[in-house]
Structure formats: structure tokens, C-alpha cells
Amino acid sequence: MEKMISITRVLSSWWKRHLPSFVSYYHEHPYKFDKGELVQSDKVGVICIVSKKFCKVSRKHYHSVSPSEIRSIVKIQKKNIGNLVHVKICPLQVDDEFEVITTEFLIDEAYSNRFCIYLAEDALFSRVLKAKLLSLHTPAGQLFIARSVSKSAYKGGLIQSLEQFSHSVGVAFIDAIEVQPSKFPEFLLSAIFKLNIKDIAKEGFIKTRISTSPIQNHSLIIAPIVAFTLGVGVYCLSLFWQLESVKATLMNSTSIANKIIQHKAELDTKTDMVNDVSKLLMEQRLTYPHWQLIELALSRGTMMNYFRFENDVFKLDGVVEDANALLEEFNNHPLVSSAVFDGAVRKNNNLDNFVIQVSFKN
Questions:
Q1: Rounded distance, CA 150 to CA 135, Å?
Q2: CA R_g for the chain
Q3: CA contacts within 13 A on the Cβ side of 55
Q4: Which residue of 62, 267, 284, 290 has the fewest CB atoms within a 10 Å radius of its CB?
Q5: Residues 16, 85: contact at Cβ < 8 Å?
Q6: CA-to-CA distance for 222 and 215, rounded, in angstroms?
Q7: What percent of the residues of the chain are helix, what percent strand, and what percent coil, each to the nearest 5?
Q8: Which residues cross the membrane (predicted)?
Q9: What is d(CA 155, CA 141) in angstroms, rounded to the nearest whole number?
Q10: Tens digit of pLDDT per residue, the chain (362 long)?
Q11: What is the rounded distance in angstroms from the CA atom of residue 152 to the CA atom of residue 161?
Q12: How are beta strands 115-120 and 47-50 bridged, if at all?
């Protein structure tokens, strides 16, 4: 909390120091603030307080209208009035009655600025000051202001004092302030410093005028389109890159899955073969020579359907790539007397289906 208060104080101090460089006063020509005094300038500032003599104010009452109707009326009127005109709608105490105050700022265009907030000096002081009556010695003359009734007038004719002015507008002569000429610049700045955004929106006219060339106008249209197109292009490229990454990941995953399935199929085949051989082995009473031939057949990749030993003859039924080569190896075995095919060898998908009968040496 203390840190926030400290930051607020720093910002407030900065604003007070730099405020005069943004503010100007207009009476016949612009004035800027220089060391607590008003000095003639060639341009108005960002905030311009306009002398009452250069504010043409008109008031009009409307009866038996709703808020939406009065806003529509004012909207139509704005189309038929000048550029530097501020329109303010004031609801009256009587229902369905409104007062529309139109303020035209009579500023010479030569002193105009591209961006400026114009405020009438009497409206400014009436808005931010608490005193009911105010007497100001301005560059245009002594100005009397009655805040409670939003009335103001310069000294002249029958009105020669603030008291006479208060009687003329029907306000009691109490709570009055008089500002001398030397104090007017400082008093003006203090009033501006009390302004908030709501006051500016309600009492001020905000002027924005930007002159651009046709090329700049086209750029203002084309640039957002180009930027949007580039943004969409970059977004599409990112989506395409993500899509390709997902595809590559899926392809890699598919390849790995295929390899796993292939390995599983091979393992299943070998498992089935081991189970079949184990079953056959459990069913037969085999001796050492038989084990020798079974080992030789398995080493050559033989898938055995069955084998048995009957009447001193060992019979092997199976599938291998080259049955003739297997038969030759059986005959070359030192424990084998003879090995022959029992029936024809059948070809099936580059594999040989065979039955071999083997007789062993005594």
C-alpha cells in the first residue's frame, strides 16, 4: 500500500512539473505558460482554455421529450454546425425537460493543432471550483462567474463589481473569491490539474484532425490486410509443420508396431514349433542317434510335423527349403546306415514337404 502511495505521489509530482508544457490559453491568439506567466505563442497546446469572449454560447430548452429523443435531436444538429463546437445536454429539475448548451470556439485556424482539447474558461472554473462566486482578472478583462447557476459576465455597464453581478443572477453574495492578474496563470493551472477524464468528456471539445495523402490512405487499408494475410500464412505454416511432425511420428510408430508384430509372429511360430517338438519328444522313447538327427534337422530350419521310431526305422515328417540337401546330410552322418524319402517330395511356396526314413548302424 505504501509503495502504491509513493508511486502515486511521484506521478502526481511529474504531472505538476510537466502540465504547463501541454496547456495553453486563447484570447485573440494563443498563450503558453512560461515560468508562471502567460506568454504569447504561435500554436495552441494539447489542452486549450478559451477565453469567454471567444466562446459563442447558445441555450435552448426542450419540453416533453425523452432522453433518447433529445440525443437524436442533438445528433442531427451536430451535422449542421461548425467544426469547433461542443454540445452539452443538461437535464432540468422538471421531468422531460432539457437544456441544450451549444458552445462554439472561435479559434483562428492558423493557430489550430491536429489534436487539441478545447475548454471554455467559465465552464472550467464552474466545474472544478467549490466557491459559489468568482472574480478573475483575465487577459480579456475582469470576469465574474456564478458557479451554482452557470452564469458568467465581464465587468462593464451596470455590473462593476462581483456583488452587483451576484444580485443580477439571483445569487447571494457569499463564498466569493477574487483572483488578481498576477495570480491568474497559477490559478488557471491549479484548476486544470483538478480536471478528470469525466470533466473533459462533459465540458470539453476534443478535436482530432489528421491530414494524410492518398498513398497513406491506401496504406492504412492495405497494411492491415497484408499484416492479416502474413499472420494467417505464418499460422498455416505452423499448422502444416505440426501436421508433418505428427505424420512422421505416426509413420515411425507404425514402423515400430510392424516390427513388433513381425517379431511376435516369428516368436509365435518358433514357440509353436518348440511346443510341437516337445510334445513329440515326450511321446517317443529316443536314443542318442535320434537326438543327433533331430538336432541336425532343426539346425537346417526344418519344421517337423511328426517323428517316430518303429521297427528300428526312424521316420521324420516335416517341411524344409531343400529336402534333398537334408537327405544328403542324413546319409553323411556317421551313425546313419541309410536315409531315403518315403514317398514323393511335394513343393509348396518354395518349401519341400517330405517324409524321410532313416536306418541306423548297428
A1: 14
A2: 53
A3: 28
A4: 267
A5: no
A6: 10
A7: 45, 30, 20
A8: 220-241
A9: 7
A10: 566 666 666 666 666 677 777 888 898 888 888 877 888 888 888 888 888 888 888 888 888 788 788 888 877 777 766 667 888 888 877 777 888 888 888 888 777 766 788 888 888 887 777 778 888 888 888 999 888 777 888 998 888 998 889 888 888 888 888 888 888 888 888 888 777 777 776 777 777 655 555 666 566 677 778 888 888 888 888 888 888 888 888 888 888 888 888 888 888 877 877 776 666 656 555 677 777 888 888 888 888 887 777 777 888 888 999 989 988 988 998 888 888 998 888 988 888 999 999 888 87
A11: 13
A12: parallel
d(CA 263, CA 250): 20
Cβ-contact 144, 189 below 8 angstroms: no
Give residue 220's identity as a one-letter amino acid code.
Answer: L
Cell of 235: 499460422
Q: What are 336's three cell numbers?
A: 546313419
Q: Give the HSE-up count for residue 109: Cα atoms under 13 Å, Cβ half-sphere.
A: 3
Residue 294: name the closest of 284, 304, 283 by CA: 304
Residue written as cell 529336402? 323
193: left (phi over 0), alpha (psi -120 to 50) or beta: alpha
Q: Which set of grid coordinates corresponds to residue 287?
A: 536314443
Backbone dihedral angles phi then psi of residue 130, each to the nearest 5 degrees: -95, -20
Joined together, the cell numbers standing for residue 29 give: 491568439
Report the DSSP beta bridge partners of residue 191.
none
Judging by beta carbons within 10 Å of its beta carbon (0-12, 13-18, 19+), is residue 296 exposed, middle or buried? middle
Beta strand 97-105 with 133-138 is unpaired
Cell numbers for 20: 504547463
pTM higher than 0.85, yes or no? no
Strand partners, 341: 356
CA atoms of 213 and 220, how far apart (whole Å): 11
C-alpha cell at 283: 511321446
